[in-house]
Design goal:
Blueprint lengths: L3 E8 L4 H11 L6 E7 L5 H11 L5 E6 L3 H13 L4 E3 L2 H11 L15 H15 L14 E5 L5 H10 L4 E5 L8 H5 L6 E5 L2 H14 L11 H17 L4 E3 L5 H18 L1
Parallel strand pairs: 1-2, 1-3, 3-4, 5-6, 5-7, 7-8
Helix pairs in contact: 2-3, 5-6, 6-10, 8-9
């Protein structure tokens, strides 16, 4: 028997929600072999029948779906049941529960989270701002930032900033070479902005930097990857953050999502005390 599970992710929108949910699910199981079959913008019964015709070829197909049209969702669930294919909806019960709680009918509109409303345009603006203010660029405009990230090279500043931008936060990031590399007006007004230091363990940073140089086919030697130099660099960064009383996040064993969640929590506290 083939022990590779055929995971069918069926969505009436982009499929991003489903992808994230399955990523969270599979993280709970160490030994699982699977192959993903992704079907986005599935909005007709004919589309569903074609997908199920493919799925029933396998003895271990599993369906995970996110469809807000209740009639279409029922059709998928009922047809899957007849074909004896395990099928799990991720939104139906939640939408129904919230509908009862809020005492109002759900719109059942596919891609509702991507509506071109004020929140959407705010997010686009934040992404553009963050891309323009990456790696210490346009420092003169940094006062327009919601969040400013500082850190030595390869401490996940850029990916964290981009993730935050997708959440609607205008985020600047500045590489920390030494204390003087921090703009003077930030040093003179350390509590006027939400400034957060990102740091990591030196040994981990050595590996990350060596991998980075290897991917660029460059020499992995030199002070950039020297443990003694990096230890000094990391400790200097910590001392700088402490000097200005800026919160520090250790990103050593954190994913970008986890780091961003910590940043948002700090930002919320900062705004509350502002």
């Amino acid at each position: 028997m083939n022990d590779t599970y055929q995971i069918y992710l069926i969505s009436d929108s982009t499929g991003e929600t489903l992808d994230r949910i399955f990523t969270a699910i599979k993280a709970q199981f160490k030994n699982i072999n699977y192959k993903i079959h992704t079907y986005s913008f599935t909005r007709t019964e004919n589309q569903i029948l074609k997908i199920l015709s493919d799925a029933e070829k396998y003895s271990n197909a599993v369906i995970l779906y996110s469809i807000v049209d209740s009639n279409l969702a029922k059709h998928l669930a009922n047809t899957s049941s007849k074909k004896k294919i395990p099928c799990f909806g991720v939104l139906g019960d939640l939408i129904l529960s919230f509908s009862k709680l809020l005492n109002q009918k759900a719109s059942h509109e596919p891609s509702g989270q991507y509506a071109l409303n004020e929140e959407y345009y705010k997010r686009i603006e934040a992404i553009q701002f963050t891309m323009n203010h990456d790696d210490g660029n346009l420092v003169k405009e940094i006062n327009k930032s919601d969040i400013i990230l500082l850190g030595v090279s390869r401490t996940s500043k850029t990916p964290t900033a981009i993730y935050l931008a997708n959440k609607g936060f205008k985020t600047s990031n500045i590489p920390l070479v030494n204390e003087k590399s921090i703009p003077q007006f930030l040093r003179e007004n350390p509590r006027s902005y939400c400034i957060i230091g990102l740091n990591t363990e030196p040994e981990r940073l050595v590996d990350i930097r060596k991998n980075r140089l290897s991917s660029l086919k460059e020499n992995v030697g030199g002070p950039y990857t020297n443990l003694e130099m990096i230890t000094k660099e990391v400790n200097n960064a910590k001392n700088t953050f402490r000097k200005y009383n800026w919160p520090i996040i250790d990103v050593t064993r954190k994913s970008v999502e986890e780091t961003a969640a910590s940043v948002i929590k700090i930002y919320e506290i900062y705004k509350k005390n502002d």
